[in-house]
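Suppose you are handed only two things: the residues of a chain and a line of SMILES describing fe (ii) ion. What would the bound structure be? This form records exactly that question and the answer produced for it, so the two can be stored side by side and reused later without any lookup.

QUESTION INPUTS
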Amino acid sequence: MADHVLLPNCARYQINVAGVIQIEPGEAGQPLHRDTALYPFKHPCPSILMATMWAISDFTEANGGTCLAPGSHRWEHAREPFEDEVISVEMPAGSLVIYLGGVWHGGGENRANTIRTGLAMQYSAGWLRQEENQYLANPPEVAHEYPEELQRLIGYDFGGPFLGFVDGDDPHRILEFGYDVPTRRSVHRSRPEIDEAAQRMSFLSLGNVEAVPTPQREGSRVKTQLGGFEEAQ
Ligand SMILES: O=C(O)CCC(=O)C(=O)O
Ligand SMILES: [Fe+2]
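ANSWER OUTPUT
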């Protein structure tokens, strides 16, 4: 699912934040928010963040099941939902709800006498700063024990060509060899899969900055990286 949602806009995605969220009996609802509000994007904005909420306990309307306004990731930036545009996620333990970072949502009010427990796991484009600092939360001596797929997902990997290198090389090598092994001599942009994915990535406009007009003129153009990166030797 994250491949489908996020990969058009990044060469690799990462875990943004992970945590268990409990809502206790009598607890008020969380104000509705967009998870992408941490970043300076005007909505609607491209898919850069995908949130998942796993039900550890049953989720009901009464016990604080996540409230969300379906479709609101496509609304104008300042449109706030009416009450009848917000639904409560009801799902048995073991189920999962997935919503985009631009969807208005929040934990519900718990009017029941049981605790609502959910595992929130968000994924974001590899070029975004993670909400939770995964490198301090999972330093190398801890992350060392994780399966490689998880190590890469939390960020011990490139976030795109060149993004996140350590000593000019793949950050994952720190987990494999520590800091004392010399880096490889050749210049690596990243891993081949990430480089290929970067070529397929769409370009996003950020903000309303207008380009100066392109002059219509004769002459030969300088070759740039627009046509793709070439491996430095
Ligand atoms: O607890 C919930 O149902 C939602 C939590 C949430 O929106 C968040 O952590 O950003
Ligand atoms: Fe949220």
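WHAT STANDS OUT: The chain has six helices and seven strands. The beta strands are 13-23, 49-55, 67-68, 87-88, 96-100, 105-106, 116-125.
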